[in-house]
Amino acid sequence: MKINGADAANFGVIRYRADGTAELTLAEASYAEHGRGARIGYAIAESEFGHLLIAATAVGLCWVGVEESAARLTREFRDDFRNAELLADDDRARRYAPRVIASARGATAPIELALDLRATPFQLAVWRELCAIPRGATRSYGEIARRMGNASAARAVGRANGSNPLAIVIPCHRAIGAGGALTGYRWGVEYKRRLLAHERAIAQADLPLAAARAAGAG
């Protein structure tokens, strides 16, 4: 498929592993700043974490937010993509919902999602580090900066973390402040706490199965 003269395969994809980590690949977006040139469909889905607003171009997911208020989600999304043509209750966006929710619930089967995101090289590097954090674990902004080879970049990591347009999909909730403080989440600390508690419960439940597999292999 061609989008604005480019092959759709050149845009982006995220592939989840059983432990909740993911491989993130991005090349270019099909639209300019604030969605200029894009036709974006969006839909509200229900989940145990709150309302999800899921938005997608013809290429892939471009925005996911989580909130109790569907009205706030819609305002935030419309502001972020104020230069785009926006289509409410879009079937294409709605079709992404089961896989987005399954990834958040901790599905062990492989999940792949097409993406259409704008990102600077630094943002992409940070988002890849977020995707490398296993389900049930967290890393501080400082630790992420050290893993990127720049220990002094913790604040810049925090800004890139906050600029993530795909709540839950790119797990920015797994990044925490120094000393374990739950800070810097666009959708509020309570949602961050809720997501982390859910993931820790899944990780704990998986421990006996992992031990049994290790014993069998031995």
Protein model, in words:
It is a single chain. β6 and β7 form a beta hairpin. The strands form 4 sheets. A 4-stranded mixed β-sheet has the order 7-6-5-8. Strands 4-3-9 form a 3-stranded antiparallel β-sheet. It is built from 6 helices and 11 strands. The termini are far apart. Helix content is 38%, strand content 22%. The protein is of the alpha+beta class. The longest helix is centred in the C-terminal third of the chain and has 29 residues. The N terminus is likely disordered.
- Classify the oligomer: single chain
Biggest beta sheet attributes: 4 strands, mixed
Separation of the first and last Cα atoms:
47 Å
| Beta strand % | 15-25%
> What is the overall shape?
globular
SSE pattern, N- to C-terminal: EEEEEEEHEHEHEHHEH
Query: How confident overall, as mean pLDDT?
Result: 90
Widest β-sheet, arrangement of strands: 7-6-5-8
Number of helices: 6
Rg from alpha-carbon coordinates: 17 Å
Regions with pLDDT < 50 over 5+ consecutive residues?
A: 1-8, 209-214
Number of strands: 11
**Helix/sheet category:** alpha+beta
**Helical residue percent band:** 25-40%
Which helices and strands appear, and what pairs or packs with what?
Blueprint: E1 2-3, E2 6-7, E3 12-16, E4 22-26, E5 39-47, E6 50-56, E7 61-67, H1 70-80, E8 85-87, H2 91-105, E9 111-114, H3 121-131, E10 139-140, H4 141-147, H5 154-162, E11 175-176, H6 189-217
Parallel strand pairs: 5-8, 10-11
Antiparallel strand pairs: 1-2, 3-4, 3-9, 5-6, 6-7
Helix pairs in contact: 4-5
